[in-house]
Write a structure and sequence with these properties.
Layout lengths: L2 E5 L3 H12 L4 E5 L2 H10 L4 E5 L7 H8 L7 E6 L3 H9 L4 E5 L3 H17 L9 E4 L2 E4 L4 E4 L2 E3 L3 H12 L7 H9 L7 H15 L9 E4 L3 E4 L3
Parallel strand pairs: 1-2, 1-3, 3-4, 4-5
Antiparallel strand pairs: 6-7, 7-8, 8-9, 10-11
Length: 229
């Protein structure tokens, strides 16, 4: 049977879901924030994740964005009725489905079975392509190399990870806070200037004209994105 990770900062919800899903024969792993979820997926073979949206340290939306760079494992968000915009954002970041709290246990089981069937049938247990390309920018993540119009570019680890995040989600706007938390893997505390400096350095390396960038765009008041080509 499949291994399922339940991630929610409410331990009572984790315990309840564990009872229902264990009775179906699934092996259950537990996490109580997004960081613990990432650690669990990197340490164990996980076939599906039930992920709460609102959690401390690293929320479910940010954790989903990171996971989608590493795995195609199905992710079902656990959301409150008031989190409508978070449902849409979560789906845009790569979540496969959502269940609204308070949930019907039978609905959760049905959605879990549906996602696992899709995952197995479509051969989802393969990693995303190691090659990311937008316009003239290409990243070979296996080789940790970047080229712009065929020419190799040398990036720092932080610059590389920022570019990888944006290449993985072309057209998606990320706030400075989101970029900092996803790349530095730390809570964002006054991170705007830090992110801006690294974006500027990255532009100097991948843009022909850094002052009039073709790829790395500012969306004023919202954040940064990599322009779709």
């Amino acid at each position: 049977m499949a291994n399922i990770l339940i991630c929610d900062d409410d331990k009572d919800i984790v315990a309840a879901l564990k009872i229902y899903l264990s009775s179906e024969g699934y092996t259950i792993f537990e996490a109580y924030n997004g960081r613990e979820a990432l650690d669990a997926v990197r340490s164990h073979e996980i076939h599906l994740i039930l992920m709460d949206v609102m959690m401390p340290e690293l929320d479910g939306i940010a954790a989903t964005a990171v996971l989608r760079q590493e795995s195609n494992v199905p992710i079902i968000l656990l959301t409150a009725k008031s989190e409508g915009s978070d449902k849409v954002l979560g789906l845009n970041m790569g979540a496969d489905d959502y269940v609204t709290k308070p949930f019907d246990p039978m609905e959760v089981i049905a959605r879990v079975k549906s996602q696992l069937r899709r995952y197995t049938t479509l051969g989802g247990q393969t990693k995303p392509s190691d090659l990311l390309t937008v316009g003239g920018i290409s990243m070979d993540d296996a080789a940790k190399s970047v080229t712009v119009d065929g020419e190799p570019v040398s990036l720092t680890p932080i610059e590389y990870n920022i570019l990888k995040l944006l290449l993985s989600h072309p057209g998606q706007v990320f706030s400075s806070t989101q970029i900092y938390e996803l790349v530095w893997n730390d809570p964002s505390l006054g991170s705007e200037n830090t992110v801006a400096v690294h974006i500027r350095h990255l532009r100097e390396k991948v843009e022909i004209n850094p002052s009039n960038p073709r790829y790395l765009k500012v969306v004023w008041g919202l954040g940064y994105k990599l322009e779709k080509m």
